[in-house]
Specification:
With 582 residues, this protein is α/β, with parallel strands linked by helices. The protein has 21 helices and twelve strands.
Length: 582
C-alpha cells in the first residue's frame, strides 16, 4: 500500500481539488431536501407563492452549481486515475526490463503481461470510482443523518436499522469474495499462458493434429475462470435485491410512521418529505460504498501482484561505482575457472558449468561445440551478465565484468541469439535497432557480410519492406541473416553468434563464414555451433561435455586428442572432410 501511495503523491494537488469540489457537490445535495421541505411547509400549505418561487429558484441554481462542480471533480478524478496507472505501467515495464532470466522465469511472461495490463487497469478503474465514492458517499451519509435528525428524531431508528443491515451485508460479501479475487487473477494468468502457447505454437499443434487436446486444455482453463467469475458475480448479484428490499422497506416505514406523526400533529408534512429524501440519500450513499466492495477486493489483489513485481530485487547486482574499460580496448574475453548453477537450482543439483577456463582473443574465432544441454548457450548468458557466475570470474581486457557498467559491457558486444527475433517495422528499422546512428556504409557492409543482399534487393521496397511481428513474413534463413546483419551494424569489438547459422544452407553458411573472417579479422568472434562444418576452420574450438571442457584446440588437434570431438565429427562429416577440412 505504501508503494501505491507513492504513486498518488504527485497528484496530491488534483486529489485536494477533487475533495473540495465533491464536498461542495455533497453539501448542495444535502441542501435541496431542506428547501423542498420549506416549500411545502412555508409555501404550499399557507399558500405563499413568493416562498415557492424563491426556494424553487434557489433549488434550480444549486442544481446547476452541483452539475458544474461534478464536472470539474470528474475531470480531476480522471486525470488522477489515468496518471497513476500510466506511472505504474511505466514503472513495472522499466522494472521488467531490468530483470534477469531468473526473474522472468519466476513470474513467467504471461503473468507479467497480465500484471502490466489487466492488473493496472483494475487499479485504475477502482481508483477512479473510489476517489469519488469514498469522498462523496461518507459526506452524504454523515450529513444526511445530521440533517434528517434536524427534521425528526422519532424516525432516526429506521435509518439506523437500515444502515446496520447494509453494513452487515457488505462485510459478509467482502470476506466471501476476497479469496476468490486472488484466484480470479491467477486464472487469468493461466488462460493467457494457454492462449499464448497455442497461438505461438500453432504450426506444431496442426502438424501433430493435437487441436482436440489443445481445445480441451483451453476449455479447462476457461471453465475454471468462468466458474470463479460466476461465483463472484452471483454473490454480488444477490446484494442488489437485498439493497432494494432495504430501500423499499425504509421508504414504507418512514411514510407509515411519518403519516402517524403528521396525523397526531407531532411533525410537519414537509419535514417528513425531507426526512424521506435524506433517508434515501443515506441508503444510496451506502449503496455507492457497497458497489466499491465489488471492485476494491480485486484491486487490492491486483495491487499486491503489481507490488510483487516492483519489490522484486534482481539477482544481478550491479556495481555502484563501475570501472570503465581502458581506452585502448581490444576485446579479449577470458574465463577463469568459471562454475555456474541456476539461481533456482537445489543445493544438491550439479553445476551447469564446471571449472571453465579459456581465452578468446581479438583477430581469432573461438568456437564452442558440444551436445545439447552441455552448457554452450549458458556461456553467452554469463558473458552478457544475464546470470552471474557461481564461482570464478569472467574478464574482458582484464576487468571483471561484474565491476563494469552493464550498458558499457553490452555496448562492446554484438550478439546474435539462438532464436532469430525481428521486430515489427521495416528491414531498415530492424537493422538500425542495434545502432540508430549507424551510417549507410556500415549498413550496406553488414548486409553484404550476412549474405542478405540478394533477398533484400529482390523485394520491391528494399530496405523499407515491411517486417511482420517476429519476422513471420520471412523464412528462417532470412531471419537469421537479418539478425546477423543487425549485430554487425553495431560494429562492436566482440561478436557472439549463438548457433546463428543453423537455418542456412551449406553454401550460404560457407560464404558467410568466409566474409566474417575476411572483413572482421580484427574482432573477437565467439561462435556456438551444432555443425562441425561451420567451425572447422576456427582458430580455437572449445568442446563441452556435461558442462566441462573435454578439449580445446584446432580441428586438427582435437581430432587427435579429444574423443568427444571425434565422435561429433564422425557423425557429421565424411572421411575426406575430416582429414581435408579446407
Amino acid at each position: 500500500m505504501s508503494e501505491f501511495l507513492r504513486y498518488l503523491k504527485p497528484y496530491s494537488g488534483m486529489i485536494f481539488g477533487v475533495v473540495f469540489f465533491l464536498a461542495a457537490e455533497a453539501i448542495v445535495a444535502l441542501m435541496l431536501p431542506g428547501l423542498m421541505a420549506d416549500i411545502v411547509n412555508d409555501g404550499v400549505l399557507p399558500g405563499h407563492l413568493s416562498v415557492i418561487w424563491r426556494n424553487g429558484a434557489a433549488m434550480l441554481g444549486l442544481t446547476l452549481l452541483s452539475m458544474l462542480v461534478a464536472l470539474v471533480a470528474g475531470f480531476f478524478t480522471a486525470r488522477t486515475a489515468v496518471g497513476v496507472s500510466n506511472d505504474m505501467r511505466e514503472a513495472v515495464y522499466e522494472k521488467v526490463l531490468k530483470f534477469s532470466d531468473a526473474e522472468i522465469n519466476r513470474f513467467n511472461t504471461s503473468s507479467l503481461i497480465t500484471r502490466t495490463t489487466n492488473d493496472i487497469m483494475q487499479v485504475q478503474n477502482t481508483l477512479m470510482m473510489a476517489i469519488r465514492q469514498f469522498i462523496y458517499a461518507p459526506i452524504i451519509a454523515v450529513g444526511g443523518v445530521i440533517r434528517a435528525l434536524e427534521r425528526s428524531t422519532d424516525l432516526a431508528w429506521i435509518v439506523v436499522a437500515a444502515t446496520a443491515v447494509m453494513l452487515g451485508l457488505m462485510g459478509v460479501l467482502f470476506f466471501i469474495a476476497l479469496p476468490k479475487y486472488k484466484a480470479w487473477q491467477e486464472l487469468i494468468d493461466r488462460i493467457n499462458l494457454v492462449s499464448r502457447e497455442n497461438l505461438s505454437g500453432i504450426l506444431v499443434v496442426r502438424a501433430f493434429s493435437t487441436q482436440a487436446f489443445e481445445k480441451k486444455r483451453f476449455e479447462v482453463a476457461n471453465q475454471n475462470l468462468a466458474s470463479t467469475e460466476r461465483f463472484v458475480n452471483q454473490t454480488f448479484a444477490f446484494m442488489t435485491p437485498v439493497i432494494m428490499l432495504v430501500l423499499n422497506a425504509t421508504t414504507a416505514l418512514i411514510v407509515w410512521v411519518g403519516a402517524g406523526q403528521v396525523s397526531a400533529f407531532r411533525a410537519d408534512i414537509g419535514d417528513i418529505f425531507a426526512f424521506l429524501q435524506y433517508g434515501m440519500l443515506i441508503i444510496f450513499a451506502f449503496l455507492m460504498i457497497s458497489v466499491m466492495f465489488i471492485f476494491v477486493p480485486r484491486a487490492v489483489v491486483s495491487m499486491k501482484r503489481i507490488d510483487e513485481v516492483l519489490q522484486t530485487e534482481g539477482s544481478i547486482i550491479y556495481n555502484e561505482n563501475p570501472v570503465p574499460f581502458p581506452e585502448n580496448f581490444t576485446g579479449t574475453v577470458e574465463f577463469r575457472d568459471v562454475s555456474f548453477k541456476y539461481p533456482d537450482a537445489q543445493e544438491d543439483d550439479d553445476d551447469v558449468l564446471k571449472n571453465i577456463s579459456f581465452t578468446a582473443r581479438p583477430g581469432q574465432t573461438t568456437a564452442i561445440i558440444g551436445a545439447t544441454g552441455s552448457g554452450k548457450s549458458t556461456i553467452f548468458k554469463l558473458i552478457l551478465r544475464f546470470f552471474d557466475v557461481s564461482g570464478g570470474g569472467i574478464f574482458i581486457d582484464g576487468l571483471d565484468i561484474r565491476d563494469v557498467h552493464k550498458e558499457e559491457l553490452h555496448h562492446k558486444i554484438g550478439y546474435v541469439a539462438q532464436k532469430a527475433s525481428l521486430f515489427s517495422g521495416t528491414i531498415r528499422s530492424n537493422l538500425l535497432y542495434a545502432d540508430k546512428d549507424a551510417t549507410e556504409e556500415r549498413v550496406e557492409r553488414s548486409v553484404e557480410i550476412s549474405q542478405s543482399r540478394a533477398f533484400i534487393d529482390g523485394k520491391p521496397e528494399g530496405y523499407e519492406s515491411n517486417v511482420a511481428q517476429s519476422g513471420s513474413n520471412f523464412s528462417g534463413g532470412q531471419r537469421q541473416r537479418l539478425s546477423i546483419a543487425r549485430a554487425l551494424v553495431k560494429d562492436a569489438p566482440i561478436h557472439m553468434f549463438d548457433d546463428s547459422f543453423s537455418a542456412l544452407d551449406v553454401k550460404t553458411d560457407a560464404l558467410l563464414r568466409a566474409a566474417l573472417k575476411n572483413k572482421m579479422g580484427d574482432k573477437t568472434t565467439i561462435v556456438i555451433a551444432q555443425r562441425v562444418s561451420s567451425i572447422i576452420d576456427a582458430d580455437q574450438i572449445l568442446v563441452l561435455d556435461h558442462g566441462e571442457i573435454a578439449g580445446i584446440g584446432t580441428h586438427k588437434d582435437l581430432m587427435k586428442t579429444c574423443e568427444v570431438y571425434r565422435e561429433i565429427a564422425a557423425s557429421q562429416l565424411s572421411e575426406e572432410e575430416i582429414h581435408c577440412p579446407t
